[in-house]
Amino acid sequence: MGFGKNNVLHRNHFRKDWQSRVKTWFDQPGKKHSRRVARQAKAAKAGLRPTELLRPAVRPPTVRYNRKLRAGRGFTKVELKQAGIRAKEALSIGIPVDPRRRNRSEEGLKLNVERLEAYKARLVVFPKKAGKAKKGDTADASKDTPAVHNVQKALPIPAGVQLEQPREITADEKNAPSAYTALRKARSDARLVGVRAERKRKAEEEEAAKKK
């Protein structure tokens, strides 16, 4: 039952001072920008180190987007094996590994292996101790070579589809049947494979019987 008219509200607890107990986060956009600037400054100060990880070129799912190429999460173990890179070694030189991804096509596998080989050819690994190079370290890492500067830039993702240049329509294309006719004929041929094979077998048996 509610209160009527201009009566006093019973048990009115309005002195909790909740404003002093609320935690706000109004500086979130500014802090995000500050962290990004700090990461860039740290990467530039580190010297000859890739500013971002090398990502594989993958195709997005669904028919709507799979004609494009985008950066994936990481390389598969098959791609790393063909490029001659161990999984633990890859994690230490800026190459992420995705154990869940699978290679569904030879073209995609070849493309990512070529990306790894190009990255590996441009990579310069400094020894932990000066003058004591271990296996996998670059012998002349101390020299200022063009490869040292190029390693800063990430390999760009190639275009997913290469557009064809305009050309004239040939005579064969003009005289070719319509797409509807071609599809109907292909569907009919696929449906009548067994019938035609049986018909051919019976004809061969009849010819063999006549020769006897």
From TrEMBL:
The keyword Iron does not apply. It comes from the Eukaryota. Signal peptide: none annotated. One of its GO terms (molecular function) is structural constituent of ribosome. One of its GO terms (cellular component) is cytosolic large ribosomal subunit. One of its GO terms (biological process) is translation. It holds the Pfam family Ribosomal_L13e. InterPro entries: Ribosomal_eL13. Transmembrane segments: none annotated. Keywords: Ribonucleoprotein, Ribosomal protein. Belongs to the eukaryotic ribosomal protein eL13 family. HAMAP family: Ribosomal_eL13. This is 60S ribosomal protein L13.
